Amino acid sequence: MSGQYYFTLKGFFTRARQEYLYYTTRPWSLDDVGKFWDSVEDYDDVNEELYTYFRRFTNSFDLAEKHLSKKKYTMLDLQARSGKGSLFWHEKGYVKSSVCVDFSDYLISLTHRRLRKSGLKYTSIRISGLPLKFKDGEFDLVCSYETIEHVYDYDLFFNELARVLSGDGIMILTCPNRMWEWVHWLSTVININHSEGPHRFLKRRELIKCIRRNNLQIVEENSTIFLPFNNRISIAIDNILEKYLPYFIKSFFALRRTFILKKHVPASL
């Protein structure tokens, strides 16, 4: 695909049927997710300069920065997609190595293309199931950008993220707000954005249950993006809304949730 999106009536009904199947088919596998992302051949073209895409990295860094130490981190980037998250953290100077995990052969090829000359020490691994083949506490920085909603057994997925996080490490988790499910569906059906494939947007309380069950603490959280458009005026308005709207409104209506998590340290007796 070329990155250009066009509307036809036949395409509308084809996409509507496909999105209905994605939304109603339960369960799905990581291989199903990988096959979907293999089909999105213009992934980087679409997201190259997209405001909403890069905010996942910049916003999470702004939230996490005060909790970062001066050491270089070993990073798990899951689902790495085309490697932009690992490259972002490498260019910030915080990562000495990254393991880029994905479900898609095509996206792994994009990761190689992006990172092979970056100077970052990295490995890329394709997985088709859980649990992860990593040791307990193996990573200092665990990043999951817009991924948990694509994993059917999201409980096990989150458990694995927590398991491989080191005792003093930091986890970054971002995901869409459940309220925006219909917006993503509509934007796909009328062909102004690519599909999300197999997924289920999660409620905040479902995420909080995962966090508590794994004895993690939220050290930072915010909700961002009201106007997901890529022009200067809407971005400026979006920044104003994020700055001045009350927290409960942002939490309820904003597109993206971002959590910065650490393992809970019990108070000294």
Give a structural overview.
It contains eleven helices and seven strands. The protein has helices at residues 9-24, 30-39, 43-47, 51-64, 84-91, 105-115, 154-164, 181-189, 204-213, 232-244, 247-253, and strands spanning 73-78, 95-102, 121-126, 139-145, 165-176, 216-224, 256-263. It has one domain: Rossmann fold (3-Layer(aba) Sandwich). Strands 3-2-1-4-5-7-6 form a seven-stranded mixed sheet, with helices on both faces. By secondary structure, the chain is of the alpha/beta class.
Short description:
This protein has 269 residues and is α/β, with parallel strands linked by helices. It has eleven helices and seven strands.
Using the CA coordinates, give the radius of gyration. Answer: 18 Å
Span of the ends, CA to CA: 61 Å
Strand order in the largest sheet: 3-2-1-4-5-7-6
Beta percentage is: 15-25%
CATH superfamily: Vaccinia Virus protein VP39
How many domains in all?
1
Number of E-type strands: 7
The number of helical segments is 11
Low-confidence stretches: none
Gross morphology: globular
Order of helices and strands: HHHHEHEHEEHEHHEHHE
Share of helix, binned: 40-55%
The average pLDDT value, as a whole number, equals 93
Structural class: alpha/beta
Topology, element by element:
Layout lengths: L8 H16 L5 H10 L3 H5 L3 H14 L8 E6 L5 H8 L3 E8 L2 H11 L5 E6 L12 E7 L8 H11 E12 L4 H9 L14 H10 L2 E9 L7 H13 L2 H7 L2 E8 L6
Parallel strand pairs: 1-2, 1-4, 2-3, 4-5
Antiparallel strand pairs: 5-7, 6-7
